[in-house]
Specification:
This protein has 494 residues and is mostly helical. The protein is 72% helix and 1% strand. It contains 20 helices and two strands. Helix 7 packs across helix 14 and helix 7 packs antiparallel against helix 15.
Length: 494
Amino acid sequence: MEQDSVYEVKKRRASAASSAISSDVPEDAVAMKRQINLFASIAIIMGSIIGSGIFISPKGVLEYSGSVAGALLVWTMCGVIAMLGGMCYAELGSSIKKGGGEYTYLNEAFGEFLAFLMLWVNFIIVSPGNCAIIAQTFAIYAIAPFYGDCDPPAWAVTLIAEACIILVYSYNCYSVKGATWVQNIFTVAKVLGLAIIIVTGIVFLFMGYTEYLELGFQGPGTNIFRLSLAFYNGLFAYVGWAGMNNMAEEIVNPKRNFPIAAISSMAIITVIYVMTNVAYFTVLSPQEMLASSAVAVTWGELALGSAAWLMPVAVAMSTFGAVNGAALANSRYAFVAARDGMLPTALSMIHIEYLTPMPTLIAMMLITCLLCLYQDTSSLINYTGFSYWLFVGIVVTGLLWLRYKQPDLERPFKVPVLVAVTFALICYTLVFVSIFASPFEAVLGTIIIITAVPFYFYGVVWRDKPTKLRSFLDGSLRVLQKWMMVVRQEVQTF
């Protein structure tokens, strides 16, 4: 397409759609469209949550909880906690039509400074960090069959993980519908993979394989600090219920679909996770689980025999789908924030033909690839957990504040105050205890939050920049627009 025709298309579309609103976006408008239905919404939540956590975290939960029964109890309680969080986010998503998730909710409740702190932590470490962990897990399971009893070399894991990230973010640049179809397919595939584990475990239970489950609370035990780390590892496997909130402007009938998708997804996932861990313990002793670097693969070798190859395939498909879900959801909050002037203007633009936030997707891809070079996933989970749960608690506190600040706001779904208070207190408790249990990670998390302050004053507060600097920035933006064929959204979609 010639460059002149690009701007002719832009001008024609802007003229035709200048007065449109989100509920009636013209087909030819350069804007995000509401094309994600209920099933796709459920697939996004489940696909974002069911990733590497159920395959990484069982080892950490068992180690820090100190017993088989303690581990199963932690998994169940984590599901209950995640359900409470999902309900709170369903209220926010069904009442605030704007995308951006936690960033938007903090901005509405407490103003742009606190929202920017949350945005910065999410943009720099939490979202890309979690995505990097999932991509690393995909790489480990994808190449494990080629190395037999040996651990795959670190360089191979990193290379495959980086390739996965680049592939997923690349095709997300070209089609929202295509990315959601990928999400639907891989969500079904990963549920089927976990169903193999669960059904096989049930068969073993009926055959009397209950030796390790009967150990109950026998074991080295735990304490309040180690128990908090068990919850950190368990809750890592449940993180992802906010993915749909980031894409609120693309959800069909959000008043209805938000609560249905959030509650049904969390209920299904809790049952799947608890039953999967029960199935693990039908054939794996606590010592074998703690010694395994790939719990599902080790379980498959003992339980499935010649069909053990199904486990690496199932895990690889599960984690690949989770990376896709992360790309779909994580790019949207940065896009919305840039549209509000909180991030560089380039990140607020969408492709004139594909209607995807291409600059934001590319930026997120680069940050995720950088963090993927970090090999210690266990510390990364604890590190991102500190920042993540701190701001999630503040977001839910904001839900309560908005009840007072905006009492007339339409709330199609409203959670009991006790649910919101309980969930917020749980988040703050996890953060408080983690400061003593993992002080180094807590310090790093605090440093990352503090680094947001100078960027806030430069990018948000300092509007009257020197003419030469402004000219340079504007010129760079025009070059990027021409190169990527992206423009600002032409109509309001919330």
